[in-house]
Amino acid sequence: MYSLEIEGGEKLSGELQVSGSKNSALPLIASTIISKNSVSINNIPDVVDIRTLVKLIEMLGGETNFDSNRLEINTSKVTKTKATYDIVRTMRASILVLAPLLARFGHCEVSLPGGCAIGSRPVDLHLKALQEMGAVIEIEDGYIKAKAPDGLVGAEITFEKKTVTGTENLVMAGALAQGKTTLFNSALEPEVIQLCEVIRDAGVQIDGIGTETLTIYGTGGELLDFQTIDVIPDRIEAGTYLCAGAITNSQITLTSVEPKHIEATIDKLEEMGFRFDISEDRVTIFPAKKIKPVNIVTAEYPLFPTDMQAQFVALATQADGVSRIEERLFENRFMHVNELQRLGAEIDIDKNYVEVHGLGELRGADVMATDLRASSALVLAGLVATGTTKVHRIYHLDRGYENLEEKLNALGAKVKRIRD
Ligand code: UD1
């Protein structure tokens, strides 16, 4: 196992290129199951979650070649339809193969994702919607066993709650269904939009892309003809590095970024006193005269993302006053709080709500990464803590951040990966 050792107190400066979006690449890779041709996907981040899904596609019989952020996938020889527990348990997003396998083969088995570090995270909405399209689903021995021998049939589906991967699964289901599928209360995240655009470019009419109501005109089982895909920039990685600039009160520039996708994050940083220079695909953050406290409630896109909550809790430790942050999407997503407290942060926690009392000094210590975004919050805190912070279990970080320490060190941070 590896840890990151961070010497705090360095100012950052310079430019950093944002990687492709992990959360966009995952559904795109899964969608190649319903492609009739070999598909090239550019700007794929080389992170563990992507390697996991690529491995799953290979286990199903697909052929892949992943090199220099470009992934070539040919799923024409896929014959297996079972996503086993040992893969799914390491990455919940494996659930994204459920709809494409079912739509193409008429049956599949996907292990239930089970418990997860940030709450129970059920997949009931995915299953209910597929049942409305005619799928027969049973849960047996920890597996979702789905069948639709005569193919999926278009339906009108209303998601009780907005779900990102749920919407993505149903867009893929609708693409191969017979007739028209309408999805009400669809998620609006940029990753959902990119998947819809890719499937539209592959020959499926989709109306309402970018709105809560998506109408998909299915091919009735015919596989799709995919074009080359360029994955959109990772808005959460971008937001995390903006927080690195902010927490060290430094000027840094992000390149290859989509400013529109990080508006909610930039708005909150502006409220805290940071200034910005924004152009088409570059964002520069300038230091604040005084870092002000902030109030945040997490919500669905385009509002403030839950995936940026932990980083702002870390940042709030440097604000002049009390910040109030509420997590509305996931229960149990404040595990970074205990670890930040080990560094000396003054944080009061009440279930899904925290008050962060800023301006206390953070002091380096050993801390434990608990989930992907919580881990990045600990790294951010380490950048300003006095002395050395050692973040253990960084395999969580490796799931979603490409070359994290190289990127931070290029900006002047002192971060070292060491074997425990
Ligand atoms: C995706 C992102 C994740 C992000 C989350 C919320 C990917 C691979 N992951 O996760 O990084 O934190 O969106 O922006 O894109 N829910 C149900 N039943 C379901 C599905 C969801 O109750 O069947 C609930 C969840 O428990 C949660 C809420 O709906 O409270 C939203 O979850 P969802 O949007 O589905 O998250 P993911 O797609 O898993």
Report on this structure.
- The protein is 31% helix and 25% strand.
- With 420 residues, the chain is an alpha/beta fold.
- The strands form six sheets. Strands 22-23-1-24 form a four-stranded mixed sheet, with helices on one face. Strands 2-15-17-16 form a four-stranded mixed sheet.
- The longest helix has 13 residues, at 164-176.
- The chain is elongated.
- The site of uridine-diphosphate-N-acetylglucosamine has 21 residues, from helix 1, helix 5 and helix 6.
Helicity range? 25-40%
How would you describe the oligomerization state of the chains in this entry? single chain
Percentage of residues in DSSP E strands: 25-35%
**Which molecules other than protein and nucleic acid are bound?**
uridine-diphosphate-N-acetylglucosamine
How many strands, which pairing sense, and closed or not: the largest β-sheet?
Answer: 4 strands, mixed
Q: Could you give the distance between the termini?
A: 6 Å
> Within the largest sheet, what's the order of strands?
22-23-1-24
Number of beta-strand segments: 24
Please provide a brief summary of the model.
The protein is an alpha/beta fold.
Give the SSE layout:
Layout: E1 2-7, E2 13-17, H1 22-31, E3 39-42, H2 48-59, E4 63-67, E5 70-74, E6 82-83, H3 85-88, H4 98-105, E7 107-111, H5 124-132, E8 136-140, E9 143-147, E10 156-158, H6 164-176, E11 180-184, H7 190-201, E12 205-207, E13 214-217, E14 229-230, H8 235-247, E15 251-255, H9 263-271, E16 275-278, E17 282-286, E18 295-297, H10 309-316, E19 322-326, H11 335-342, E20 346-350, E21 353-357, E22 366-368, H12 372-384, E23 388-392, H13 395-398, H14 404-410, E24 414-419
Parallel strand pairs: 2-15, 3-14, 6-7, 10-11, 18-19, 22-23
Antiparallel strand pairs: 1-23, 1-24, 3-5, 4-5, 7-9, 8-9, 11-13, 12-13, 15-17, 16-17, 19-21, 20-21
Helix pairs in contact: 1-2, 1-7, 4-6, 5-6, 6-7, 8-10, 8-12, 10-12, 11-12
The structure holds uridine-diphosphate-N-acetylglucosamine.
